[in-house]
Amino acid sequence: MKHAFLTKIFLAIVLIVAAFFVLNSVLLYNYIANQIKIENERIIESKLDAIEGNLDILLNSISFEQKKMAHNSNLINILTQETISASEAREVKRLMEEFAWSHGHLSLRIDIYILSKKENNFSNATFNPYTYAGLQSEDWWIEFLSLRDQSMLLDTLVSPEFPYTFKIIRPIRTIIQQETVGALIFEISERVLFDSYKDLTSFGENYFVVNSENIIISSQDKSLIGEDFLKFADNSGEKHKTNNLLRWSLASGCIYSVKDIIQEGQERYFKYILYSLVLLVFFILIAFLFAYRISSPIRELNEDMRKLSVGDYAVRTKVSGNNEIGLIATTFNEMAENMQNILETTKKDEKVKGELKLNFLRAQINPHFIYNTLTSIRFLIDMDKNEEASEMLLLFTKLLRHSLSSDVELVPLKYEIDNLKNYVELQSIRYSGKVSFKSEIPEDLEELLIPSLILQPVVENSIFHGANCTHHVLISLGGYVEGDILHLSVRDNGVGMSASRLAEVRKADYTSSSSIGLNNVNERIKLYYGDDFGILVESVENEGTAVHFTLSIE
Fold first, then answer.
1. In this structure, are residues 147 and 171 in contact, taking their beta carbons and an 8 Å threshold?
2. Which of 32, 89, 362, 449 could lock onto 410 through a cystine, CB 3.0 to 4.6 A?
3. How far is Cα 467 from Cα 134, in angstroms, rounded to an integer?
């Protein structure tokens, strides 16, 4: 049993490292066999992102120009007329030429078709295959009518003059009534799509732009344009990017060498096994040294705390050091010496019995609290939660400085609030963030003096009983002044107490079942201020508990 704690820490670390090594070795072969493929897919994913961005910029630019044309008030007025004059026809032609010139940098031909609901049609192309009435038989017509202020990508159109083109359509509506009076079609060469991604294509890769029906509208292999992408797509090497606005998808088909992947994966696998074996031996040695170094002083200090908690006030720990554990050991020895001196002085001087009793009650809180906290730290280390244990030690050191560094009975309320914040934060680590604390004390009351450490035992009770809650426990501190009396209240939203249990607690002078009771606090207040002061407990089952303090302002 002497080295049980050390053995547990050492075995826990070794088992964790060994389990990780074994599991990782079993899974690694398949992982590395696919690693190259995954890396290639990531490269392709980044390329798809780049291509998608280029296509978005291009198609959104074209869509924006369509929008400007479709919103042109002169064009809308012309399309609503039964007959159109020659000057109005020239105005429509001018609008189409403006767009063509504004996109001259694309070095490609853009055919524009303006179709009127009254069948007054315009185009800058030599041949116009569209009529407004003819569009109404298309499968996408209902969706087209539902568009508000958007463009829509249509199927591939193969024409003798421009064999590979795609078209974008947008409705023309009146500004006020939003009545559809026509349709605006841009017919653009496939080259503009291909130019946006041709420089990103590597050997063994092929990229396709498809419409909403999976028909290829752009590809490096022009013979595939117009084909159904799903007929030859390889699902194992296929990725997609989809644009919902214009109803187009970007897909890639990739070729991988499985033989090369497996061979390189085996080489990496054997190297990993060799390195892992070396690291495993190294970590086992480190684990032993680490476990021994941590467990030794804490085990010794824990044993000394146990002796002090059962009344051996002559005990002194031999643990030392410049870290948090060493500071706790020094503080522990100071506390044990203070408690021993208090007891000896009590026996010698009956005249200061009341004052000594106050100091004893105040000191009584510390050994139990220290013992419980160190037990929690030990539990965290057993669970291999060393970072949480270190943070707990740091907060614990601050609390010990607060409770043991001064012999003054009365301290500012602000000082006690700061101590409660540290205490609840420490306990929050112990209970995995299940509790929190909030102070609602007005600033003008924070300098009032109160007996030290009368709030902490009450908060500890709230945390002790709140650990059984299924919800987060919030502890709040409020207060106000009425005449010469300071009223403070510690409230929680914990499990509360039944009416019968509350009656028992009040009848027993607030003696708690925990190691530090309300009786301690109540007795200290009465010894210091008189029987007219003390505490009052109120509680509702399943709603929470409130402890009210009545103190005198001096």
1. yes
2. 449
3. 74
Residue 523 has a pLDDT of 83
Counting other chains too, the contacts that 402-408 makes at CB distance below 8 Å and 24 or more residues apart are 403/365, 403/366, 403/452, 403/453, 403/456, 404/331, 404/334, 404/335, 404/338, 404/366, 406/452, 407/359, 408/452
Instruction: Count Cβ atoms below 10 Å from residue 273 Cβ, excluding itself.
Output: 14
Residue 182: name the closest of 128, 126, 134, 120 by CA: 120
Tell me if 553 sits within 8 A of 481, measured CB to CB. yes
Which residues have a Cβ under 8 Å from the Cβ of 269 and sit 6 or more positions away?
28, 29, 32
CATH of domain 34-256: 3.30.450.220
Collapse the DSSP code of 338 into the 3-class scheme (helix H, G, I; strand E, B; otherwise coil) and give the result. Answer: helix
Please tell me the pTM assigned to this model: 0.40
Cα angle vertex 364, ends 359, 367, to 5°? Answer: 130
DSSP-derived letter for residue 124 is S
CA–CA separation, 7 and 5 (whole Å): 5
CA distance 340 to 363: 10
Question: SS3 for 470?
Answer: coil
Could you state, in order of their start, the residue ranges of all structural domains in the chain? 34-256, 433-554
CB atoms within 10 A of CB 539: 21
Tens-digit pLDDT profile for residues 237-272:
455 666 655 666 665 554 344 444 445 555 666 776
The residues that bridge with 165 in the sheet, in sequence order, are 157, 189
Q: Does domain 433-554 have CATH number 3.40.50.10380?
A: no
DSSP-derived letter for residue 236 is: G
SS3 322: coil
Angle at 148 between CA 146 and CA 151, to 5 degrees: 90
The values of phi and psi at residue 517, to 5°, are: -100, 165
Q: Which residue has tokens 């102070």?
A: 439
Which stretches does DSSP call E strand in 214-355?
216-219, 238-243, 248-254
Instruction: Quote the CA–CA distance of 508 and 518 in Å, as a whole number.
Output: 10
Q: Could you report the per-residue pLDDT of 496-505, keeping only the tens digit for each?
A: 888 888 888 8
Confidence bin at 533 (pLDDT 50/70/90): very high
